[in-house]
Amino acid sequence: MEKAKEACLAWQQEMMKTKDTAFSKVGKAVQNKINAKIPERVHQVVTESIKSMVQTVLFGSKWTTKRSPVEEMPFEEREALVRNKVKRYKQMAAAEGAGTGAGGFLWGLADFPLLLSIKMKFLFDTASLYGYDVKDFHERLYILYIFQVAFSSDEKRRDTFLQMKNWNETIKGYETLSDVDWRKLQQEYRDYIDLAKLLQLIPGFGAIVGAFANYRFLDHLGETAMNAYRMRLFEEEE
To answer: Which residue would you say has higher pLDDT here, 33 or 137?
Structure first.
């Protein structure tokens, strides 16, 4: 557990850092140029996929009905189960990315909603393994916050992380589902959206890019989710 605490502390410190401003501006400029050349159809698919995902997480029962929180389990065993989930979902995402990447433009478009679904399933599984009940609206909201921390700009990531850090205070602002502004929740991911994934639409090497990118994204999401739940567990112990 001590190693997990050290890793979690290092992660929290990393969440508070920002990249060099000049570098960030250059990166944003490049992203804007690439986005301008992407067909509108791609932008629509991405935006609608994120909107649908957020609404399903908050309002639907797609990922909650068969999941119950794992209770009375030693921390080390929970971590082992989560690591196995990370490994499994990385393989699943890589296979999905390779398959859709090899299929050309239309299959490449299909990858966006499929990858989002894989990411959400992983987060719901992880929450349950750490002992949190995903039937609780606030826990589903926490899942979306994890998602934002993993796939946001430096400024938004830091702000979202601080809200997670003070979760008991943050949830006081969400008394009902109508208090959630899904547009804000999806905007950062829409802006951040995996530039590497766009290369997956290019004929010739889409399969390679798709497999590598999806694997990397799930690996990053796995690290973020583990540390986000470690942070809550350790603070609750205190």
So the answer is: 137
